[in-house]
Automatic annotation (TrEMBL):
Classification via Gene3D superfamilies: 1.10.150.900, 3.30.70.360, Zn peptidases (3.40.630.10)
Residue ranges of every copy of the Peptidase M20 dimerisation domain listed in the record: 228-350
GO biological process, alphabetically ordered: proteolysis
Domain of life: Eukaryota
Family assignment from sequence similarity: Belongs to the peptidase M20A family.
Keywords on record: Hydrolase, Metal-binding, Protease, Zinc
Name of the protein in its database record: Peptidase M20 dimerisation domain-containing protein
Organism (species): Heterostelium pallidum (strain ATCC 26659 / Pp 5 / PN500) (Cellular slime mold)
GO molecular function terms noted in the UniProt entry: metal ion binding; peptidase activity
Length: 467
């Protein structure tokens, strides 16, 4: 445990702030709801923005301040758990269990956020606004929700003198939004260097989908991710002689050459692989027609192809000498990354086009929904969010930092412990991201139950309610 530092002026001012109690916390204890809502709201005030634009330098002072804020906001946790700072800005906490024979488990999350376009927000995205029963701001769900609710769960259990048998690691990365190369990649490398393997890793995933989120989804459903897509990112560049637009050459322009290739990609989507290789309980509840016609379901069953950027030309009257397009494939389990690259070359079939692979990653391993850890998480979801919630295994179609933990555990699951409606997913990297305070309280209870559930040696014991 590192020596505690005195809070900076920003941290001091945040810790001194209070707010009027919300009137919309339903049946949850008002004092508990207000307390954790304020902690999340204060966490949002730190502009821990990961910049993927190479022309914009990331400001790491808010990251340092955020680490200090956590230390002040959760004093009991920091007095009991061992904390290691990894690569300056990521954190690995260890809550030692009383039985070293039990494999530990991990709760993973991150605290960096994506940049914001201020024009579309109705509140200050970093103001820590609490109103109408919601905590508003960038990161309120993705992903400071998990950071704050998991820490609050641990803090609460420690205040009740709870002692776990199984060791818990809380791993918090600082650059997930730009690939996690300096955060969770380094945490996992450290964990593996210590020879640690885990019973389970629980990371962010898709929020619970409210009934009516999709046609045919008649019950609130938790898609508990058991695997996730891989990816292939590549760019293609065509070249041709330039010149003045008043004297065009006889050969095709680089824009025309590349447009033909782009059209070939968009006109030839990859077919779905054999679905029996990687069962998807979530998709199984829909008809084939629904799967083929509802985009949310369709891109869950196939490798997607998108043209994300196209650049060429410098002036209206100057013929460009090059044109470049960037193509993104999100690769579904069952498809092979290298086979997709070969297929792309056949589709292009033009020596005037140069292909460069920017990055690639195969789909993740499949974590069985028949495993005890999956069943334990499923029970906790139903315990907190309602016995009528339909919990299904399925594919996490985005990428998470779990890619770095494949060697650490065969049981890697993904869930965001809150409920969204049909407009809710767009908030996560879009405008007016907000979290219902009732969901925040449920998230705290969810992680309390997860910790208590995994304290049991065989994971089979039914846990009782937490007051």
């Amino acid at each position: 445990m590192k020596q505690q530092q005195q809070p900076t002026s920003l941290v001091s001012s945040i810790l001194a702030v209070s707010f009027a109690p919300s009137s919309n916390v339903n049946a949850y204890p008002q004092s508990n709801a207000n307390k954790v809502a304020l902690k999340l709201a204060n966490a949002i005030k730190f502009k821990t923005i990961s910049q993927d634009d190479p022309d914009i330098k990331t400001d790491y002072q808010p990251f340092t301040d955020f680490i200090q804020y956590l230390q002040q906001a959760f004093p009991v946790l920091h007095s009991h758990l061992n904390r290691e700072i990894i690569n300056n800005y990521s954190m690995l906490y260890r809550w030692d269990g009383s039985n070293p024979a039990l494999k530990p488990f991990f709760i993973n999350c991150h605290y960096d956020v994506v940049p914001v376009d201020m024009s579309g927000w109705s509140v200050d995205p970093f103001g820590g606004v609490i109103k109408d029963g919601y905590v508003w701001g960038r990161g309120s769900i993705d992903n400071k929700l998990i950071v704050i609710s998991a820490m609050e769960a641990i803090e609460t259990l420690l205040n009740r003198s709870y002692v776990p048998e199984r060791t818990l690691y809380l791993a918090i990365g600082h650059d997930e939004e730009i690939g996690g190369y300096n955060g969770h990649k380094m945490i996992s490398a450290h964990v593996q260097s210590l020879g640690i393997t885990a019973e389970m890793i629980l990371d962010e995933g898709i929020p619970l989908l409210q009934a009516g989120f999709l046609p045919g989804l008649n019950t609130t459903t938790a898609l508990l991710g058991v695997n996730e897509k891989g990816y292939v990112y590549f760019n293609i560049t065509a070249t041709a002689p330039g010149g003045h637009s008043s004297m065009p050459p006889s050969q095709q322009s680089p824009i025309g050459i590349l447009a033909k290739a782009v059209t070939a990609f968009e006109s030839n989507p990859l077919p779905p692989p054999n679905s029996t290789l990687y069962p998807n309980q979530f998709l199984d509840q829909f008809t084939q027609q629904q799967i083929e016609t509802i985009p949310f379901l369709d891109y869950m069953r196939r490798t997607t192809t998108t043209v994300t950027m196209f650049r060429s030309g410098i002036k209206p009257n100057v013929l460009p000498t090059t044109a470049t397009a960037w193509i993104s494939h999100r690769v579904v389990p069952g498809d092979d990354v290298d086979a997709i690259i070969e297929r792309n070359n056949r589709l292009i079939n033009d020596t005037r086009i140069k292909v460069i692979i920017d990055a690639k990653l195969p789909p993740s391993p499949y974590s069985s929904p028949a495993a005890k850890p999956f069943k334990a998480v499923k029970q906790c979801i139903k315990k907190i969010f309602g016995q009528d919630v339909n919990v299904k295994s399925g594919l996490m179609f985005a990428n998470t930092d779990t890619r770095y933990y494949w060697p650490v555990s065969p049981n890697i699951y993904r869930i965001m412990p809150c409920v969204v409606n049909s407009q809710g997913l767009a908030m996560l990297h879009g405008y007016n991201e907000k979290l219902a305070i009732t969901d925040l309280v449920k998230a705290v209870s969810f992680y309390q139950h997860i910790i208590r559930k995994f304290n049991n040696i065989d994971l089979d014991t039914t846990i009782t309610d937490i007051d």
